[in-house]
């Protein structure tokens, strides 16, 4: 038998070893295509280790799908403040250490810092893409956009996050939960055949000037509510109107956005111009729960809350237990009674019609 020279044999062994290692690396890498809210196919290689999320409600969905914060590399400073001021921040205190310098509060990206941080992918709003998306993509940063304009787009980003994280089954379980909740609410409303309560959703106020949600948000329609601003012809996410417009619209119910911690139901009840609203006369002014209805992972809890407020004689879920069970399902965490009170805005809604009886500890 001819013996190969030692050097040739060593080279062969090394080559075979490198080839094997290379093939193992290729097998471990999982390149997939995900479709974002623009319909654009984004190529990613899993496992993904660092995700930067700039829209406000999306980090909650990622934490739920991924089972924690370890891969959440950066978030919007407004999202961090909202989360740390609420129950999510108590459940995941490490959110305080997540970077917030990659994006401005108005969602404009800091391209230089993003390039230094090197996230595997950035999740950004689709809207105002020229300002928010193009600067990153022009710099070679991988961006997947999201939208919360409809229930379909919200479901789309949950499915997309599941793909990015390699947690498709878990993401689908939340979508199935969403389907069941919507179907259950729809069945009750269809059987009742009631006119829809007319609502206004206030995001902020300054004396007699208000910013309200203009479009018919999916969580309004899902819960059988009708937005008076949409009735008036508005289609934008938020619009500025005067107190006289609110008087003219005369909604049955007023909602105050939980993201704004400077305005509470008492401010509406004592407002000198709004005293004439039916909603004020009947005590139907409510601070929304600290559960974002725009995230399809957990928005189901908000759907039920809105339905309970809109139709208190039709829906009789034990919302405290529902929220407790829901957070266990979403985040694997048990809530205290105090945390449930905080989520349900018990302090701020204490004067609101029927609230303490429906959502308080003694039901």
Automatic annotation (TrEMBL):
The record's Gene Ontology biological-process terms are: cellular response to iron ion
Instruction: Tell me which residues make up the Fe/B12 periplasmic-binding domain.
Output: 50-318
Superkingdom of the source species: Bacteria
Task: Name one matching Pfam family.
Answer: Peripla_BP_2
PANTHER family attached to this UniProt entry? MOLYBDATE-BINDING PROTEIN MOLA, VITAMIN B12-BINDING PROTEIN
Protein name (record) = Fe/B12 periplasmic-binding domain-containing protein
